[in-house]
Amino acid sequence: MQRWRRFICAFLLLFLTACAMGPDFIRPKIDAAEKFRLDPVEGESIANMRWWELLQDETLQRLIRQALQENKDLKHAVASVEEFEARLGASRMDLLPNLGFDTYAPAFGRMGGFRFPGFPTPFSYYGQTTLNWEIDIWGKIRRSNEAARAELLEREESRHAVILTLVSAVAQAYFDLLQLDRQYEIAQQTLASWRDSLELSQAQLDAGVISRIEFDQIDAARASAVKQVAELERRLRQKENELSVLLGKNSTPIERGQAFAEQPPPVEVPAGLPSELLQRRPDILRAEQSLAAATARIGVAKASRFPRLSITGFLGVASPALSNLLLSGSEFGASGLGLAGPLLNAKSLGFEQRAAEAQARQALAQYEQTVLTAFKEVEDALIAVHTANTQRQAQHEQVEALRSALQLADLRFQNGITSYVDVLSAKRNLFDAESALLSMQRLHWVSIVQLYKALGGGWVL
User: 17-97+137-307+351-454: which CATH topology?
Assistant: First the structure.
């Protein structure tokens, strides 16, 4: 007994002090600037805000919360995390001894031929337990656990990425709806105006005040307004369908909250430090964990090329008669060490290691590309926010000027100074400018949402 105790202690010491083969994962160094090139505002990044602090429309908040509960892509991502949690648990069990049992009771045939006392044969009753414990000398199992843990964290970051994308997608679709709603109202008002103008023009045509050409131009403008109303109605219903899918339900009318004019965007939208991006964006963290898993698999492949040492044993009782199964002399057992290693397939395992190393280089390139893309998206979003705000202000000034021009053109027409063609042109210009203003208001908000997404904010449930 003392000898076995020393034997087991020696192997445990060997197991605990053995080093895992293959490289340890180290996060790659990334050259990041001190600040974003197009970030004129200093301060804490808006990515540190909760999404409900940035998007303060209560109706929009309810829609986002519903999407976070019912969206099918998010449920798929959550189930994927649960799957890899179970896989990690199964991988960790490989470090423990494998203990099983086996029993046998002959039911047919002659109960004879028991040649070796204490050991089972097909003609005897027996029960036995078996033990197999692989000693992880080269760290193969530990590296496998590292890879499984990295894969779990990768799936977790994928879940965060789905949440980030979902919040942004619901917000953008909601702002699209607000834009389409207002454009639809303007188009209907414009259509009503053209119908009134057409009735007036018909009377003027009958009285010989205007020519047929002027009347046809007004009628063509009315028909164009009818087409515009139908087009906006189609886009509006399709956008509601798109948003319903994000909410995880069949197509239904979508509740609206505050109009664009009631949702002033934040005055300042600081981006923060580029180095913070590496710790916040889910896609970067996901690529980092993918690289960590690929690095650990190098150790698994390398350790597979070396012999495996294991402790095996079995213990049980056997007898040709069931009544003698538990009597003295029916016991049997054996234990020992097992050593197994590659011979003819050693070169094949060498290729497997080279393949694992190549996969790690692929993961490194993907990580670096993901970081570059993230920096680009932030810079693009910053310039979009800046220019969209400038465009929105300029477009608002244009709308005010064209409203004044329409009033003046209508006044000149009523006083007989000019023809109705000038009024027609002024109405068209104002309608186009009002639609463009709505597009600029939507673009400004969407640019802020895209910057928030590019900075990696908003994935908090």
Answer: Outer membrane efflux proteins (OEP) (1.20.1600)
